[in-house]
Amino acid sequence: MKYEVVIGLEVHAQLKTQSKIFCSCPTEFGRPANESTCPICLGMPGVLPVLNKTALQLAMQACLATHCSISPRNRFDRKNYFYPDLPKGYQVSQFEFPLGLNGYVNIQVNGTKKKIGLTRIHMEEDAGKLIHGENLGNPGKSYVDFNRTGVPLVEIVSEPDLRSAEEAREYLTQLKAILDYAEVSDCNMEEGSLRCDANVSLRPEGQKEFGTRTETKNLNSFRFVQKAIEYEIERQTQVLEQGDKVVQETRLYDSNKGVTFSMRSKEEAHDYRYFPEPDLVPVVIDDEWIQETQDKLPELPEQKRERFALDYEIPEYDAGVLTTSRAMADYYEKSVSLYPKPKIVSNWIMGELLRELKNDEREIDECSVKPEGLTDLLKLIDEGTINAKMAKTVFEDMYHSGKSAKDIIKEKGMTQITDSSAIENLVDQILQANADQVEQYKNGKEKVFGFLVGQIMKESKGQANPALVNKLLKERIG
């Protein structure tokens, strides 16, 4: 039997605030354990939370950037459950009256565009973090760090509109870009600022009812999301083909083994015994505040992609890659302002620069080659100081050493040979050494010409001007 995959994602994004959602404790990452805490975020008796207005403002930006309608009246609720990293025994979240409803994110996979619906966006506080003794040289024990408790989050819940692991990854890529551009979150997955839970189910093709789903929690990289979903699809397919039933449960992903494993049976909403948070009044948002927030939104990824393709006359694919992050788009625009040849700049960023960044697993704002350095290199190609092949070697050195293109060229004596007489001598040497190939070329074997060019470039250690080599070689052999 053939099955259709049904996927919905729940994304938790940490809001870019300096203090927590209901108290003034700092949200800075990496502080000593349990230092960023107070009676309010630890839930001591008698304390009263106060909503962080900046957190609400950022959550509204997330809603509007993803086309959600903002509820004029929304409310916080207590989500009750026990876990060691939850000091109050409940989490302040939004259940019945969330902040944002009915949004969407556009994606494109294999040339096909698709709109992925958003059920809701709601605000909530984060829980703490368990640190297991195996990581501290003390196996058998676990420790809790409450620094993260009370850090403001938005949870973005998609509709079950995704139909493959590839679509899920593309959705996350676009959503991360939107949150980045809208200045809602720093989206640092390594620090836990962006986390994803994946709901996966299968149903026979043509069936309208959804199958039983599993939820794989706390996936902290796009690659792990894709791999975990692919594994779940394969696992659930085997379960169904054996005549068994998929169990509704919460699972975790082991990135070392590439498998998911059961964590606990999946709770329903009623298991959490939601009820209104008595210490927080409902939030009322008027139309003026919503419109003011909408007007202040910066240019978002989709708008920037369209502008890049139109203004810079580059392919849509290039525009998509170059607007993956705000830092990438800024790097490109700065480079084009210094060297107004948009397609050439695009090729170098998408080729040489992104390859180096990928190898080092770094972001573009961590790159040692700034737009000024890249464009200086491109100008040297135009001036004939070096050729394009030499420039790639120089760029690699620039990236790893932090030196300028001119300094590297000078140190390594890489200046391009543009003297006609010098190149003529090289051409004559190669023609004398390859008389048989010259005869083959004259008899109509045109591919031999490329071989001869290659030999000349090799003899010059790649420093001969390729255009001049081709011109002089043709003149010599007719």
What count of helical segments does DSSP give? 15
Rg from C-alpha positions?
A: 29 Å
Helix content: 25-40%
The biggest beta sheet reads: 9 strands, mixed
Gap between N and C termini, in Å? 67 Å
Q: Reading side by side through the largest sheet, how are the strands ordered?
A: 2-6-7-10-1-11-12-13-14
Strand content: 15-25%
Class computed from helices, strands and strand pairing: alpha+beta
What is the residue-averaged pLDDT?
91
Count of separate structural domains = 3
Envelope shape: elongated
Can you put this structure into words, describing what you see?
With 478 residues, the chain is an alpha+beta fold. It folds into 3 domains: 289 residues, no CATH class; 114 residues, no CATH class; 58 residues, Arc Repressor Mutant, subunit A, CATH 1.10.10.410. Helix content is 40%, strand content 20%. It is built from 15 helices and 16 strands. The strands form 4 sheets. The protein has a 9-stranded mixed sheet. Helix 2 runs antiparallel to helix 3 and helix 14 crosses helix 15. The radius of gyration is 29 Å and the shape is elongated. The relative contact order is 0.10. The mean pLDDT is 91.
